[in-house]
Amino acid sequence: MAKIPSRRxxxxxxxxxxxxxxxxxxxxxxxxxxxxRSVTTVAGNVPLWRTTENALKILELGGGTHIPVYAGSARxxxxxxxxxxxxHGETGINGVNLPAPVRQPEAxxxxxxxxxxxxxxxxxxxxxxxxxxxxxxxxxxxxxxxxVAKIREIIWMGGAYFEVGNITPAxxxxxxxxxxxxxxxxxxxVKLTFIPLDVTHRALCTxxxxxxxxxxxxxxxxAVSEMLQFSERFDLAKYLWLGAPLHDPCVIAYLLKPDLFxxxxxxxxxxxxxxxxxxxxxxxxxxxxKRPANATFLRDIDAAGFYDLLxxxxxxxx
Length: 318
Ligand code: RIB
Ligand code: CA
Description:
Shape: globular
Strand content: 15-25%
Bound molecules: alpha-D-ribofuranose, calcium ion
């Protein structure tokens, strides 16, 4: 008898963003497998006040008003903020016009929440799904190194190697915004899986997929279709592909159906000093550096299986 996996407790750390929003909806649509304990927000695609407001709006859209939201870092550990309104629009979730959230974020800031929550948790009880710059997690680890032993694992949409960068020729946005944070998390020894552009650039949201979301006939399906029709503009003009890459939902899909993905345990190092390469994830895919493996770096995805899962689950929502 196959062992039924128990529900996995997760914390989603995010900078919504249209693709973050789809990831949150996918998690909300999967209550048998995922127990979303909280959402923590970070500055990234847009400033913190907007990512926090967007998280509250998307949770309300998807029926997740029982899930607390904690606002975290308004800026990277040391660098000046970098945002991506050119991709996501001024609100961060342009494409939809959702009502003002009825709830407020919790009073406690996300970094202290993460420290307190992991200190109070059993080792291996909680998984972190990181969808933006990893500043909150790095700050919590700096404040309380003891929590590393409590974190089951971190699944992070971040980095790029064979696909090179998207915000610079060498760096992917989530790492580029706060490379020092990425370096701290990597060096902490926490179990870390990267879902890089090498994967997400193979998960293209074609217009056939957008039509499938719209055809679901529910609010969430319509909102996903509308959000992604907005955010695809930039990528379609840039890459001239048949669809825009869909990044953050891959993190949640990996927890739901890991067999859709493949990769390997390798050394990943973060470039912090390069004039042209700062923020690059130097992924030793071929093992030439002899540096010890410190992360799982995914490389491929069954895109058809991913969209079948994603569209079916979004169809379960309000
Ligand atoms: O590079 C893609 C990542 O940057 C995604 O998480 C997207 O939401 C942006 O944060
Ligand atoms: Ca994101």
